[in-house]
Amino acid sequence: MARLFAPWALALLLGAAPSAAFQTSVSQPSFACSASSLCSTAEAEAPAATAEPAEKPIQKSRFDRLKANYKGFMNPVNEEFKDFTYDDFASVLETSLVAFNRNDIVKGTVVQYEKAGALIDIGAKSSAYLPLPEAALLQEQTSGIEDLVDLEAVLDFQIISDEDENGQLLVSRKRIQYAAAWEKVTGLQDEDGVFDAEVVAVNRGGAICLVEGLRAFLPGSHLTGRIPDESLVGETLPLKFLEVSQENNKLVVSNRRAVVEAQMSDLSRGDLISGVVLALKPYGAFVQVGGMSGLLHISQISYDRIDDLEKVLAPGDQVKCMIIDHDKVNGRIALSTKTLEPEPGDMLKDPKKVFEMAEQTAAKYHERMEAERVAREEAAKEIGLGLGDDLDDISDMSDNLESVLK
Predict the structure, then answer these.
(1) Core-most of 131, 157, 268, 359, by most CB within 10 Å?
(2) Sheet containing 171-172, strands listed edge to edge, beginning at the edge strand earlier in sequence
(3) Angle at Cα 36 formed by Cα 33 and Cα 37, nearest 5°?
């Protein structure tokens, strides 16, 4: 087609085109706008361009989007605390929690058993822990935590630690019971009374007894008429305290003191008792009377002189003696067989006869002692009457002397 147009024709065409186009656009402006849909749209939107920009839509959170799409059951929402913040919660928590200090005694509820203890609700941020060794003062080797505390039981507990990294405290029942036991023991010591306790173990030096849950030592020398062997375990003995020291955790008891005091309360001078010779000494013999030991001095064995005590008595001999003196505080008694001799020297000649006639001789001895007592009282009364007469004579002489002087 380039060949059909001459160069001059092409130039003419190019030069005329702009003016034609310009004339068309100027002479028919309304036609151009009405023919174009874009023109009308631009005119409609022109005022909006001059107005203020519209607000951006609020961006929903992921929870709101999920909530809008959820079609299941919706729990009713309490709008009362909708403005309650985490700071408010921390403030309430701070004021409602009780401060717990070491050694405090608190109420707690056993809520759960653990392998080596139990969880206790004491109102702290987390449950306190009760270790098995702290669950009770008295425990058997086979005792489990369920044998010592019951679930849902409300008990007193002592705090024995500070909070760990998890906010947990350690508590104890044993220490409360330990303090209560010492308080009872101190009261028993003040009363100085006789109490019963069970023997739980023996050793070479004596026996171990349980007193209000505390382990007390019973020395073998204070065990009456028994040897501390395994046969003693499980028996209940009457005891009295020898030493009580909570500071040193020391508790010493005596069976002999309890027995002696019980017997001494029923003994008095002049009583006839039976006993067994325990040992011989150069100054006399020791005689066991019930649970106590009495001294039969060599001067109280017979009215006759004794040169060799072993020819008269021997350990293990059964004897009858009369009490001539006693010390109830220290549990000591002084004995005599010479007061039971029908005739002076019978203990050297025929001890068997002395013991067979002991009751009769003791009765005669008492009659004689009573007669002597009455005689002494009469003599004292006569002395008092004679002294009164002498005082009357002295008074009369004094009156006569005053009259002469006047």
Answers:
(1) 157
(2) 128-131, 117-121, 105-114, 154-159, 171-172
(3) 115
Looking at 224, 244, 260, the residue that finishes a domain is 260
CATH number of the domain that 280 lies in? 2.40.50.140
* Nearest Cα to Cα of residue 253 among 228, 275, 288, 281: 228
Query: Does 25 fall in a domain?
Result: no
Average pLDDT on 230-237 reads 88
- Where helices occur in 77-173 by DSSP H, the ranges are 86-96, 145-148
3-state helix, strand, coil in the chain (%, to 5): 40, 25, 35
Report residue 132's pLDDT band, with 50, 70 and 90 as the boundaries: very high
Chain centroid to Cα 399, Å, comes to 81
Q: What range defines the domain where residue 240 resides?
A: 180-260
The beta strands (E) that lie in 258-398 are given as 272-281, 284-289, 292-297, 318-327, 332-336
142-151 confidence digits (pLDDT tens): 778 888 999 9
Cα 198 from chain centre? 19
Model pLDDT for residues 183-218, shown as the tens digit of each residue: 999 988 888 888 899 999 998 889 999 998 899 999
Q: Are residues 356 and 278 in the same domain?
A: yes
Q: Report, as an integer, the average pLDDT of 60-64.
A: 82
pTM of this prediction? 0.52
Mean pLDDT of the chain: 78
Rounded Cα distance, 185 and 182, in Å: 5
For residue 302, the tally of other CB atoms under 10 A from its CB is 21
CA dist., res. 287 & res. 290, Å (int): 10
89 in a structural domain: no
124 and 187 housed in the same domain: no
Match 């079609």 to its residue by tokens: 71
